[in-house]
Amino acid sequence: MMRYLGYVFVFAVFLSSCSHTSDEIKLFTYISGEKVGYFNKEGKIVINPQFSKGGWFTEGKAAVANAEGKCGFINEEGRYIINPQYKEVSSFSEGLAAVIGSDGQCRYIDEKGNVKFTLPFAEQVGVFSEGLAVYYEGGKAGYIDQSGNIAINAQFDNARPFSEGLGVVRIDDEGKSKYGYIDKKGKWAINAQFDDAVIFSEGLASVQSGDKWGFINKEGKFDIQPQFSEFGMFFNGMAAMVQDDKYGFIDKKGKFVIDPQYSGAYGFAANGLALVATGEAETFQMGFIDKSGEYAINPQFGFANAFCGDIAIAGTGEDNVGIIDSKGKYIVNPQFKIPFVIPHPATSFLNMKHRMIESDQGLVRKTAKAWLKGFYRMDYENLGKISTDTTIYLLSTLIELSIFMPDSTKEAMRNTAITIRDVQVQGDHASVVYFATIEKKPQTLKLVRLDDKWRVHFSRKDPDSETTEEAGE
Q1: pLDDT band at residue 198 using 50, 70 and 90 as cut-offs
Q2: How many CB atoms lie within 10 A of CB 469?
C-alpha cells in the first residue's frame, strides 16, 4: 500500500477541522532549509521561515518552536502572542492549550497565556473535545473538564477524545484488550467488546471484530457487519473502505456505491470531492472524484491533500506543491515544500488535533517500562539508547554472563510480568518503583536526564558531576 495510507487518521482530523469555505485555513506551513514559515492561499509568504518547528493554525494561533526548541504561539501576522517558554505544547482547542513547563508538569493556558490550572499528577494530557480532555495518571486514562476537575477517574488502559457524545476507551484484562464507549458521566454506553474502535462520525463508528472492521450505531449494534480489512470514517455520507486491496466508497448501508478500484482513497470533503490515488507504490498519481465516481480532476498529482473549502494542496511531489481550485487549476504554482499529510520533523509535532503531550512523569514511566521489558526479555543490546554509559557497561557484562544462565531461568525471565507502582521525579533525577513476578519484593529503578532524554542509570556516581549518590538498586 502507498505510504500515505498510514496517515489516514491525520487526514480524518484535517477533514473534520475544515469548514464549508476556504476561510477556515488562511495560512499554510512550508519548509525552507531547516526553518518553517507560512504562506497564504494567494501564494504570498506572510511569515518568513524562522521557526525550528511549526503547526497548523487553530483558533487563530499556531504553535511554533524557536531555535532553542522552546515552544510558544504566534498570531496570523507571525508575532508571538505567547512567548516561547515551554518544552512542549498542544494546539488550541475550545479556548485552551496544554503545555509542559520547565518543571515538567502539565498545565492548560488560555488564549492570553494565563495558566488556568495545573495537573501535577498527570503523565499525559490531550486537547479538549466536547468539553473534556484525556489525561493519564498512574498509567491509566480518564477525562478532565475545562476547569481542571476530574470528570471521569483514570481507570482505562487507553482513551480517545469524545465525539458525538461518546468516548472510546480500552480495558486490558489478562492479556486481552477490548474497546467500548462511555458517556460523559463515565458510564458504559456500549460495553467493551471490540478488538479496536474509532470515534463516532455521522452517527456511526468503525470497530474491529477479529480481523475485520464494520460499523456500529450508538446502541452498539452493527449497521454494517465486519467485512473490511481496514477501518474507515464517514464524511458527507460515504466512507472509503478496502476490498481485495483496492479502495472504494460505501454508503451507510455498507454497499459499495463506488467500486473498489483505487490504490488509495480518502473521505469526501464538504465540496463533494474525494481524493483518490491510482498506480502502485512510488508511481501513483492523485486526483479527485465526485460522488458519482466520475473524475472531477484527473489523476495528475504526485502529492495532494483533501479539499478544505474550495482549495487543496497539490503538486508534483511533497517538495514541490502549490494550491489548486475545485477544477484542478493552479491558483498558486508548485513551489513549496509542504508535507501536509506525511509527518515531517518540523511540521508533524503539532498537526494532529488529538495528540497527547507528556509530562516528565509520563516520559519517565514510558522509558522505565520500555527498559524493564527489554531487560526481562533479555534483549540487552537494544537498551543502549535509553541507558547511561555505566548502565551500558553493566549490560555488556550481563550479555557475556547470560550464556551460562540455565534455560529455566531464561524462560522465567521472559515470562515475567511487570507492574509499575510509583513514579517520582525530582529535577533531572527520577525513581520508579516496580514489581516483577520473578522478584520477591518491589524493586527501584533510577533514571537521570541526559541531553534532554531520560535514561536508566545504574552507577552510584552522578553522571553530571563527581558527587556520589544512590543511583540504582
Answers
A1: very high
A2: 11
**Nine-digit cell string for 387:** 541507558
Q: Is 96 helix (H, G, I), strand (E, B) or coil?
A: strand
Q: Do 323 and 381 have their domain in common?
A: no
Rounded-to-integer distance, Cα 5 and Cα 209, Å: 21
Q: Which residues contact 294 (CB under 8 A, 6 or more apart)?
A: none
- In terms of residue numbers, what domain contains 442? 360-456
3-state secondary structure of 470: coil
Which residues have a Cβ under 8 Å from the Cβ of 333 and sit 6 or more positions away? 43, 322
**Residue 208's beta-bridge partner residues?**
196, 213
- Read off the CATH number of the domain in which 145 is found: 2.140.10
CA 191 to chain CA centroid, Å, is 25
Q: What is the mean pLDDT of residues 361-388?
A: 92
| 234 in Cβ contact with 206 (< 8 Å) | no
- 144 in any annotated domain: yes
Residue 308 and residue 25 in contact, taking contact as beta carbons nearer than 8 Å: yes
State the Cα–Cα distance between residues 192 and 46, nearest whole angstrom: 48
- What pLDDT, in 10s, does the model give residues 87-140? 999 999 999 999 999 999 999 999 999 999 999 999 999 999 999 999 999 999
The residue whose grid cell reads 476547569 is: 147
Whether the pLDDT of residue 177 is over 70: the answer is yes
pLDDT of residue 317: 83
Each residue's pLDDT tens digit, 266-303 = 899 999 999 999 998 778 899 999 999 999 999 999 98
**Complete DSSP assignment for 263-328:** SEEEEE-TTS-EEEEESSGGG-EEEEE-TTS-EEEEEEESEE---BTTEEEEEEETTEEEEEETTS
CA distance 73 to 93: 13
Q: Which of 116, 118, 97, 95 is nearest to 107 (CA)?
A: 118
Report the number of distinct structural domains present in the chain: 2
Residue 264 lies in a domain: yes
d(CA 465, CA 456): 17
Q: Is 200 inside any structural domain?
A: yes
- Whether residues 105 and 214 share a domain: the answer is yes
Higher-pLDDT residue of 170, 415: 170
Query: Could you tell me the pTM of the whole model?
Result: 0.87
Share of the chain above pLDDT 90, in %: 74
